[in-house]
């Protein structure tokens, strides 16, 4: 049987300073992997097996330099977690400035494309690799005032499937994970409101908010050899929210 084993493996994680990205980095490190984290902010992980690169996923030149540096230090890249993302403008689409729209798409979708393109070229030469993109239940289940965010995450799901087809001949699997209501630094302000939290929990069959490790558990499965026959799939990690009527 394939193993759930990360010892000796090398991973790049974007959005590694907080939330789901940091949980992915922490769990990989705890499992014996080497991790290169990318984020626009500093990270408090202090381990010899962790390297932090302060950069934006939208800066293609910088991302290419980071990928080259990881290869020069470790000789390979076994997997990539695209977790970097920002929240939308929380306005109806007809009130969103085009520049604000472009910022959300740039970080949440184009940044994922840029990092994946850079890293996948390494994986193609290796004839092996795993890419996991963080999407969202809002890629398919919508509410008012989130057109920009929903469009970016819907794009992530489509990008995942298209990448999976392009990379399948190179033994590279590409999947995405769609979190539901998850308590992170980005959602803290909303869910610290007791009324909002209880209203949200009432919609979740499991009866609680997700925690970053609930999502990173699924990510690690998709990075492992146990998922070798999965590609182009969007996996919901939402406590059953998406099956509610």
If you had to describe this structure to a student in words, what would you say it looks like?
The chain is α/β, with parallel strands linked by helices and 245 residues long. The chain has a single domain, classed as Rossmann fold (3-Layer(aba) Sandwich). It has seven helices and seven strands, in the order βαββαβαβαβαααβ. It has a seven-stranded parallel sheet with strand order 3-2-1-4-5-6-7, sandwiched between helices. Helix 1 links the parallel strand 1 and strand 2. Helix 1 packs across helix 7, helix 2 runs parallel beside helix 3 and helix 3 packs parallel to helix 4. The protein is globular. The N and C termini lie far apart (38 Å).
Could you outline the blueprint of secondary structure elements for this entry?
Layout: E1 10-14, H1 19-30, E2 34-39, E3 50-54, H2 60-74, E4 79-82, H3 98-126, E5 129-134, H4 147-167, E6 172-179, H5 188-191, H6 194-201, H7 212-223, E7 234-237
Parallel strand pairs: 1-2, 1-4, 2-3, 4-5, 5-6, 6-7
Helix pairs in contact: 1-7, 2-3, 3-4
Spatial arrangement of strands, main beta sheet: 3-2-1-4-5-6-7
- Characterize the overall form: globular
Please give the count of helices: 7
User: What is the name of the CATH topology?
Assistant: Rossmann fold
Per CATH, the architecture is 3-Layer(aba) Sandwich
Arithmetic mean of pLDDT: 93
**Count of separate structural domains:** 1
Using only CA atoms, what is the Rg?
17 Å
